[in-house]
Structures are given as C-alpha cells and as structure tokens.
Amino acid sequence: MTTHTLEVWGDLACFTRPEMKVERFSYPVITPSAARGIFDAIYWDGKREGSRIRPYFHWQITRVEVLEIPRYIALRRNEVKDIVPGAATLNKWMSGAEAPEPLWADGGKDELGTDQKGRTQRQTMALKNVRYRLHARIVPKPGNDPAKLNACFVRRAKHGKCFQQPYFGCREFPAFFEHVEDPQAQPAMSISDTKNYGLMLYDVFDLSRDVIDDKDKPSISLFEAKLVSGVMDVPAYTDAAVKKLGED
Asked: What's the pLDDT band for 103 if we cut at 50, 70, 90?
C-alpha cells in the first residue's frame, strides 16, 4: 500500500491527556488521532445520508518521527463554557427561521444575566516549537478505488491545499505542512530520545466502521506508545496492540 509522508510544524500544540478533565495537559508527542486529523484536513471524502456518513476510506497512521525535542510551556486561557448548538438549531439560524443567539464570552452567569455559562480561565500545559514527520496510508472502504484516493491526496498535498486549517490538538494552534514525496531522498534528523510513554490515546472513533452516525458515542482506544531513537511506530487500528473500549 502507498504510504504518504508529511512534515508538519507549528509554534504551539496540545494533545490533551483524557484523564485531565479540567486543566489541559499535553502528551509529550502527537497522538495518532491528532495526526489523522491533519491528514483528514487535507483530504477526506465520504457520502452523507441524513445523520449518517459513509466514509470512502480512513487514514491509518503508521509512523511518527519527532524532529524537535518536546518542550512544555504553561498557558492560561479564557475558554467559553457553552457549546455550539446542534445542527437543527444552526440550520434555523441560517434560514432565518430563528434569530441567532451569540455565545457570550465576557463574564460569568451572574454578570451576563442569562442562562449562558460565560467563560472560565483554565491552565494549559502545551508544547512549543513542535515538528514531526508523519507517515500514513489510506485504508479504503469496500468498493472504493485506492489508486484514485491516493492520487487525490498527493495532488492536494503537493499544492498545499486543505479543506480546513490543520491544527495541533486545539484549533487555535495551527499546523503547517509540506508534502514529502520521497522520504529516502529527503531524510530528516529525528531526536535521539528513547522513552516508553505508557498508554496513549489512539483515537476516539471506531475507524473500522463503514457507516458513521452523528449520534454515535465516542469509541475510545489506547495503545502503548514507545519512542525509539525519536521514532514512534503506530500499530494498525485492527491490531491486538490497540486496546478498545469493552475489551478485556
């Protein structure tokens, strides 16, 4: 199967550990789900049928090369406590059937005098000056042509195109990317660190499903992350090394 390579970098990143519910604390290296999100931002395709989506493929991250030593930085940020309404409400706002209601980020509930929760200050332990080489391959769903899918990605990545700005864990931490056509001819120097990071979040979606519903609950999976001479190999989602919710 064709393996695609991206070199990605940015000023800040936060790959939040799921056990940190209030204050964000980043893993020291990018997670497979965050890496998959970068490839998805460049090229992803599927068919929507109401609340259901039939993806044509999913991205399988195979390898992460860490090119910069992980360094933490402490940030204090104002975060809005409310969430964006559902699709039904948003459609009514767009059609003019209902008046839009903004999410107020100034003050708390007492100051706003509304049912909104306002904002809160939270501490974030983020990473700074990150740089990785990400390797991934397309895993097509039945009935889809892998050659066509691979060609579409290469065409977009080589020209720096994306459907949305890729980011490192949080949308306010943009990720910049460059397509690496031949990793052997364009070698990169990984860091020399060798560490066992223990269990790391693999993904929050069931990548094996042929149909995804908007109402589906998250499907958490974990794996044992090991960095060997600056390289983290990522097992396939179907591999026994990936521990899924409900498994022994």
From this structure: confident
